[in-house]
Amino acid sequence: MAIDPPAHPEPAPLRRLGDAVDIAVAATGAALALLMTLNVAGRALFNSDISANVELGEFLLVWATFLGGASAARRGAHMRIVEGLLMMPPKLRRRVEVAIRVLVLAVLGALVWNGAKIAAIAMDQTTTVLYWPVGRAYAAMPTGSALAFVFVAHEAWRLWRGESAPDLADG
To answer: What does the alpha-carbon distance between residue 121 and residue 127 come to, in Å, rounded to a whole number?
Structure first.
């Protein structure tokens, strides 16, 4: 299964970062699928399950979610309601698109800041079975949000310079 490339060309460092995020999302998803498959098989064949299944599954799912969000931000693939934008003249539409990206950057910045604080506090707690710091799972939020911030900032910069926004017909 191929992953859709970003709609616009990216500078080499950003492309490498985005490709690394995509690989991490795929690997995390594959690990989650394998873990669940092994657990179901163990339950069916041996009437036993993997004791760390729930903790590791939650950990993988949280990381896949936030990394997947960054991957979607790279492609401008988040759900959008574009009817209002489609009615605007192009110059106003571009300004509104930039303003939207600035608002998204503010939200992502808050997620990074507050998520880092939460993850740091939770490092003192450990999970029941794996004895991992709970903050490792919580670190997915500031990490994924910081990665999304980079991709959205690049898109905002492109829009500010007058380049086209993601295709509104796809929105």
So the answer is: 14
